[in-house]
Amino acid sequence: MHTLSESTLDAAHALSDTYLPAGEPWLHQLKHGQTMRIVDLEGNQAVDTIFYNADDNEESYSVTDTLLRQGGIYLSTGSVLYSNRGRPMLTIVADTCGRHDTLGGACAAESNTVRYAHQKKFMHSCRDNYLLALAHADIGLGKRDLVPNVNFFMNVPVTEDGKLTFEDGLSAPGKYVELRAEMDVWVLVSNCPQLNNPCNAYNPTPVRFVIWDAKEEHHV
């Protein structure tokens, strides 16, 4: 699924503009109707993201509901991200990359050992980032609440025999994806620190989050 579309939203009119260093976590509450742009500043950086209903943390992003509803495995413009209760959480309203993964999952100490080598267990991982961000925020979410995530800008093709392969990303410096919140959501991000596969060209880089209030309109 490659549905490229640009946004006319102007960063000069944004509500907030956040720079997230390479490999770092981030937690933010996005209000219903607000739009968030995720910018891949240097290219091929995987942005591992989970969404939760800010009013009921038991409702979270669901990969199965999302993929079944749209009938495809990649996310791009027009994709609606559904919750585990079958409700729309966010809609992708603009995208200059064209493909985002929601099957590859987030790196963890356990997966690093299985995929790469036992000595990789202690490398920084997205799962660690998630847990650190939630522990500092103290919003009632923890380890048991982690669910399969979206990997923005990550390229994980599925082979004919059903295997996942981690390939070079399709993104490039300045590519972005924009999402409109269909409810108040927590946005939990790990700006992936992975050094063992080409999802981020073996070189984690910073990303940017630009948020507009609901009154700003799209003309896409």
UniProtKB/TrEMBL annotation:
<protein>
    <submittedName>
        <fullName>DUF1989 domain-containing protein</fullName>
    </submittedName>
</protein>
<dbReference type="InterPro" id="IPR018959">
    <property type="entry name" value="DUF1989"/>
</dbReference>
<feature type="domain" description="DUF1989">
    <location>
        <begin position="20"/>
        <end position="185"/>
    </location>
</feature>
<dbReference type="InterPro" id="IPR017791">
    <property type="entry name" value="UAAP2"/>
</dbReference>
<dbReference type="Pfam" id="PF09347">
    <property type="entry name" value="DUF1989"/>
</dbReference>
